[in-house]
Amino acid sequence: MEDNNISKIDADGQNIIENKELNFIEAIIPVVLLMAMLAYNIFFADGELLGEYSNHYILITGGIIASIVGFYNKVSINIMISEIWENLKSVFIPIMILLLVGALAGTWLVSGIIPAMVYYGLKVLSPEIFLPASVIIAALISIATGSSWTTSATVGIALIGIGSALGISTGMIAGAVISGAYFGDKMSPLSDTTNLAPAMAGTDLFTHIRYMSLTTVPTIIITLIVFSIISFTSDTTGTADLSNLLNTIDTTFYISPWLFIVPGVVIALILLKTKPLIALGTGVTLAAVFAFIFQPEILKSISSSSLKSIINAVFVDTEIVTDNEKLNELFTAGGMKGMLWTIYLIISAMVFGGVMDAIGALARITKELLKLANTIFGLFASTVVSCLGLNAIASDQYLAIVIPGKMFKKAYEDRGLAPENLSRTLEDSGTVTSVLIPWNTCGAYQSGVLGVGVFEYFGYAIFNWLSPFTTLFFAAVNIKIRQLTSK
After folding, report:
1. So what's the pLDDT on residue 16?
2. Comparing C-alpha atoms, which of 348, 6, 4, 342 is closest to residue 147?
3. Which of 96, 125, 403, 450 has the greatest number of C-beta atoms within 10 Å?
4. DSSP secondary structure letter of residue 417
5. Does residue 57 contact residue 345 with C-beta atoms inside 8 Å?
6. pTM
7. d(CA 114, CA 211)
8. Is 240 a residue whose pLDDT tops 60?
9. Are residues 318 and 106 in contact, defined by beta-carbon separation less than 8 angstroms?
């Protein structure tokens, strides 16, 4: 490609086909059956109907059902295969980015960058500003790791314990942690959902992040203001003893502000609009060099060869064992291997979406939805409702991004809206609200890990429930709604 924007490939290769032979009932048959299979998998099979890759198999099965509907409506197998191939070609760059993201996570761990972020983040804790500090710490660590789940399972647990000792409600603490963790999850180039949303909408990773910041930054500022008010007006007791956590990190890794040079360079490259593959590749390379310089003992603990330790960090699982169980899970990275689940999901979604394209189902469904969305605001609102519905019905945040992304992509193009409008809306309503639904995988996970019920933290997960309203407000008053072409 000539630039770092993947929307050109998507626009050229993912035109949704219309099929006059297909009626609306036939068009939604694959979707209804897909939703039914996903619901059964979640509610009756605990997400393990067909093993770890159940949702992937279900998406493929949905594609097979769609192909049967297509055969019935005189669509040839060649057309279906052609559309699947075009879909797969369109996500080649996102898949390469995901692989580099996995490598980045591994090298940033063994180089001490992620531990340094944790170390300095924990040092800012103060009882008087505990809740807003918890939001900031969770956000920083989630940005560094790209995972809200890892953040909650490590620092989140520690913050729950510390805050409880101070007499702060666990619902408040969990809400602060989740708000920060999902802000970081949304804004981090290491996050799988942050890579998935632009891949579905047809834009590139860093354009998506920059455009998403327009709604995300005001939302997190409001969240911080609310938590600051709560924190300053609440009485706290006890002390926050972080010495054990800090000592463990300090004795395990060489911690220095110099380590922040690497993320600083990557951020600078992003701001300079460098191609994502180059920016992320630079981050991996610099982190590997820093690992040799600053963390030789860590590399020796992983393998007898420092070079082999770096290679492992890039490609496979890496685990840094400490004497603190709370930190052990945080100091684990999956490398490129850790991204395969998401990559396989994207490929499965492309198969389902390709067949739905080929048989004309997406065009038919989109037309019916557009009848309910006569305005640009109506289109945004329909997208938000679809994401919320899929989070509740399918109980999976990935599918709440994948399915609306495919179905609404053409509608946004037809309205002259740039694809980043769709990718931003998918994240503002799909990624962050998954944790607010008790039976969603995210809601169940966060509740179980933090030991706080969903309904206890629901009201305090301010960033999560406020995000859809923010994106709808921007649409309603026409703030920063980017067009495909300048008028």
Report:
1. 45
2. 342
3. 403
4. B
5. no
6. 0.70
7. 26
8. no
9. yes
Query: Among 78, 131, 140, which Cα is nearest to 113's?
Result: 140
**Residue range 243-293, pLDDT digits in tens:** 777 888 899 999 999 998 998 888 788 667 688 789 889 999 999 999 999
pLDDT score recorded for residue 235? 64
pLDDT at 404: 82
Q: Map tokens 């455009």 to a residue.
A: 211
- Segment 417-427 shows an average pLDDT of 92
DSSP assignments along 24-61, one per residue: HHHHHHHHHHHHHHHHHHHHTSTT-BTBTTHHHHHHHH
Q: Is 483 helix (H, G, I), strand (E, B) or coil?
A: strand
End-to-end CA distance of the chain: 26
- Residue pair 150/175 in contact (Cβ under 8 Å)? The answer is no
Say how far apart CA 148 and CA 155 lie, in whole Å.
11
Tell me what the mean pLDDT of segment 402-421 comes to. Answer: 85
Is there a contact between 142 and 188 (Cβ–Cβ < 8 Å)?
yes
The alpha-helical segments, DSSP class H, found in 394-461 are 397-414, 419-426, 441-450, 454-457
Structural contact between residues 256 and 116, judged by C-beta atoms closer than 8 angstroms:
yes
Does residue 236 contact residue 165 with C-beta atoms inside 8 Å?
no
Say if residue 304 is exposed, middle or buried (CB neighbours under 10 Å; 0-12, 13-18, 19+): exposed
Can you say how many angstroms the Cα of residue 375 is from the centroid of all Cα atoms in its chain? 28
Residue written as token pair 């992620």:
114
25-53 pLDDT per residue, tens: 998 899 889 888 877 887 777 767 777 78
Residue 207 in this model has a pLDDT that exceeds 70? yes
Rounded CA separation 137/127 (Å): 14
Confirm if 398 and 193 have CB atoms less than 8 A apart.
yes
**Helices 205-232 & 130-145 angle (0-180, nearest 10):** 160
Q: What pLDDT was estimated at residue 366?
A: 64
What is the DSSP secondary-structure string of 312-367?
HHHHS-EE---S-HHHHTTTEE-TGGGGHHHHHHHHHHHHHHHHHHHTTHHHHHHH
- Indicate the SS3 state at residue 484: coil
CA distance 404 to 63: 16
The encoded tokens of residue 309 equal 């330790």
Structure tokens at 344: 């396989």
Which residue from 369, 393, 371 is spatially nearest to 383, judged by alpha carbons? 369
**Which pLDDT band holds residue 432 (cuts at 50, 70, 90)?**
very high
Token pair in block for residue 303? 């393998």
**Do residues 180 and 227 touch, judged by C-beta distance below 8 A?**
no
In degrees rounded to 5, what are phi and psi of residue 346? Answer: -60, -45
CA distances from 275 to 93, 161, 205, 281 (A): 11, 42, 10, 10
